[in-house]
Amino acid sequence: MSKKADKPGQGSESTRPRDSRPEARLPKGLQDSAAQEIRATEAMLGTIKSVFELYGFEPLSTPAMEYTDALGKFLPDQDRPNAGVFSFQDDDDQWLSLRYDLTAPLARYFAENFQQLPKPFRRYQTGLVWRNEKPGPGRFRQFMQFDADTVGAPSFAADAELCMLAADTMEALGVPRGDYVVKVNSRKVLDGVMEAIGLQGEANASKRLIAFRAMDKLDRLGIDGVRDLLGPGRKDESGDFTKGALLTDDQIDAIVAVLKSTDFKSLGPILDQITMNSGGVPDEHGGLAHLPYEDALNEMIEQVERPVRLAGYGPDRICFDPSIVRGLEYYTGPVFETELTSTIKDERGQEIRLGSVMSGGRYDGLVERFTGERVPATGISVGVSRLLFGLQLLGKYKGDDVPGPVVVLVFDKDRLSDYQRMVQTLRDADIRAELYLGSSGMKAQMKYADKRGGPCVVLQGGDEKERDEVQIKDLKLGATLTAIEDRDEYLKKQAEAQFAVPEAELVAGVRKVLDRYKA
Amino acid sequence: MSKKADKPGQGSESTRPRDSRPEARLPKGLQDSAAQEIRATEAMLGTIKSVFELYGFEPLSTPAMEYTDALGKFLPDQDRPNAGVFSFQDDDDQWLSLRYDLTAPLARYFAENFQQLPKPFRRYQTGLVWRNEKPGPGRFRQFMQFDADTVGAPSFAADAELCMLAADTMEALGVPRGDYVVKVNSRKVLDGVMEAIGLQGEANASKRLIAFRAMDKLDRLGIDGVRDLLGPGRKDESGDFTKGALLTDDQIDAIVAVLKSTDFKSLGPILDQITMNSGGVPDEHGGLAHLPYEDALNEMIEQVERPVRLAGYGPDRICFDPSIVRGLEYYTGPVFETELTSTIKDERGQEIRLGSVMSGGRYDGLVERFTGERVPATGISVGVSRLLFGLQLLGKYKGDDVPGPVVVLVFDKDRLSDYQRMVQTLRDADIRAELYLGSSGMKAQMKYADKRGGPCVVLQGGDEKERDEVQIKDLKLGATLTAIEDRDEYLKKQAEAQFAVPEAELVAGVRKVLDRYKA
What we know:
By secondary structure, chain A is of the alpha+beta class. Chain A has helices at about 35-55, 70, 105-110, 155-170, 185-195, 205-215, 220-230, 250-260, 265-275, 295-310, 370, 385-395, 415-430, 440-450, 460-465, 475-480, 485-495, 505-515; strands at about 60, 65, 85-90, 95-100, 120-130, 140-150, 180-185, 235, 240-245, 320, 335-340, 345, 350, 360, 375-385, 405-410, 435, 455-460, 470-475, 500. Chain A folds into two domains: about 35-200 and about 245-395, Bira Bifunctional Protein, Domain 2 (BirA Bifunctional Protein, domain 2, 2-Layer Sandwich); about 405-515, Anticodon-binding domain (Rossmann fold), CATH 3.40.50.800. In chain A, about 40% of the residues lie in helices and about 20% in strands.
């Protein structure tokens, strides 16, 4: 029986001898998350949520799976139409897929509930998405996204708002002004640039694509690297050669001039000059009047740059960056990326390029798939793990703010009920506490308590019971004792680290230890 | 080309003419959730989490999918081994399945990380689970669970703790003492009961199964209904006949006597009497000494009942109910269910039987699948939707505590930036606000603001602009105006419902309206 013929639900069990056991193993490309990471993520998501709510977005939740045809397929990897998503067939033969982002399900939801929804429809959504891709370092098959979208808003004011939302979110997360920047560009302006240097039309599609990809790499390769990729091509450090766009020197100079511009106002004269140099772009009557980038530029200046500046966001927070291309997906207008700009170093002191932590853009075509009508929409998405990773390297959101429980040890197995009552007393006083529930001896119990990371243990042997006392042992202080050489100091610290209190004063005694480690 | 041959990712698109569009439809058995439900669920989960944390449980998160053989198959529906879970094959031919509960992944996680974990391992986990089952009313293919488990704890003190956890959780959620009860039983005691009436051994397995199922239905069918099911069988209201266990009258009387007992102490003498009546259960030497339920009863009395009572939980909160069977799954010891006992009525005044909202039990065999060693474990699971449904019928967790945003209307499209700045001013004052981002006129904008559920709108036309003023319109008060017949009263209310303030006092003006509706 071939593996291929195995039925789901039986797995390989049917071909395996009865006494062989399945291996306990996490599937490739997936992760478990322990307490600290979960706490950190939740705290970060809570902050993001509060900003999105302040902006008037409402939460929405859609299921993990959608009909495959409704989900569509907008992953970058267009070459393998069946790859990228996890799919399975329902009992009525319809294909279902796990969602690969939160935007495609939003388009389905908006189209399905069009009548009842307020328009524009503004929602935020947080949830897991899945990609059936080859896993690699830092590249997982399940990850979390946090999106905000405004559907049914033709005005770029909606895009301007998302840029301000990104800036406000960064500051709410504790990233100081100057240590982040939201970079904005327009896909339409980029198209206009290409037209201005004579790269319009289907015939130049592949050249445009290579040129966009090259521009997108500015921050990694620098101007010279981009020049190579716009021209004959580039050999990287490993010796691999990437074929270039084979543009003329004039075309390359023009794109480099564009890449050096820092706002849309200064871009206008640059593009005018380029257009003049290249003999201009003829209008439909063969004249020279038509400037293909003009409308797109004006839209960006009037509807994005101006309101953003008027609302008090300077170029230190939201800047216009002509190298922002945002992959090759479904974007149709403004695109934006948020970067952490302070130097971030990993544990080994290596500088880290984190890339964009919050990005998005306008996608006017996505709902049209269902309704046939163009529905203008724009959205932004937080890369949850990447952002948390960056914030943690900046010393924030460590998830270490909840101490482990106070552990009441089991000295005498016949007195479980007494110990349980002590736990109860602590919990009633709102102190995180638990009874040791294993069956090992005192040494293993102490080791257990250490692993749980609680502030102290409580124990009561026969002697203490007779005196109506409990022993309280401060685990952190206890761990420092062996390093103390001075005898008096040792005895003093030892007395602090382990002390007896009347059982009736259990709560006060434990509080004494808790107060030592209050943040 | 048959439907069956369709490839995932292409769906039916490949067989469809180019211009036909996919239908925007939610897959069957799945749900979208809007803002109110999401807010209510989050608030409820937050409360549950705080209690679980107080008890010393730590959060854990595992991925949505597991290798099918590692996940195992412990769904009630054992007749269809491939059904019940959503499965798909990875590119290396290994089968993956979406998790159907949070316990099977916990067993995998514990077995995989055995060396590093503190033992006992105590974790809580909240997450979605999926069942590939026929959907029905209130029966969905994706739902949320919230579990707490202690793995590696042989002592029933761990089970006692979960019963107290359930009681504390109910009270933390605002369910008054007396309006909930945690019902406890033991699978081992039930086995002893069966043995005491001569239903031991493989030969009686199917009779025991039917008898357990009958006992489980006590609260729905009453004692007479259970008697029928223990005997020849029962015809329900619809005329359907359910075959019974065909027990003797003595056996039925004995089970009914057991069902009428209310604690484990009183159960002892009842079982002794039954054992005597039935001629006793012979021990291995043919004597009469062996009482099969004795150890199980003592365990429950000493390790569950006693510590629970000593910790102050009376039978009004945690009671012993011999009819609790907990399905036919992997439980091996104590089992428990939590019920809301106050009369709950739906919107039409119909009384509702909600069933258990938080249940679990001991499962000592689950990790053994991987390790070959028996690992004692016990856990409890919250039925998130059902509990929320019950709490909402009790008037709690309605999710209506966040008002919609203040909407700044667009009177003059050329002044978007001015309006955006007003929004910014409100947000800076921590007031939830947004700019109207659609392209419709004033009437549609007012309708939009109404739908968003915000307290008021802000508008500024040319006249107001000239006077440096803004108009603020209270939407709730505005909606009550038409019902006012007295002219003076109308004018007074109208003046309250819509008023002008200097633009510099925008925040104070909006606050005036917000204060009217503060909870």
